[in-house]
Amino acid sequence: DRRADYVSAILENLVSWEIVESRLTKAVVRAVERDEDLRRRIQRKQHLSQANGQSRARPRTRQGRPTGWQGDQEVARSSPVEA
User: Fold this and answer.
1) Is position 45 within any domain?
2) Where is this region: Disordered (predicted)?
3) How far apart are CA 37 and CA 41, in angstroms?
4) Of 4, 24, 67, 83, which residue is the least packed, with the fewest Cβ within 10 Å?
């Protein structure tokens, strides 16, 4: 049975494992850099919001609406007025 020999020859000669390794290494480096940049941006935003005295979540009233909810937003949710 020479099938194993054929498969081995194809894998050794058809695929350039040096290129595969090179591409994988570059992809890993890019992923690490991207994760580091994302982590820095998140930390910077958290630091700025804490410095400004803001929290990430807005306080809510008992009805579940944000405390700044008023004006057009409430009118849009009310029922139509009959004339």
Assistant:
1) yes
2) 42-83
3) 6
4) 83
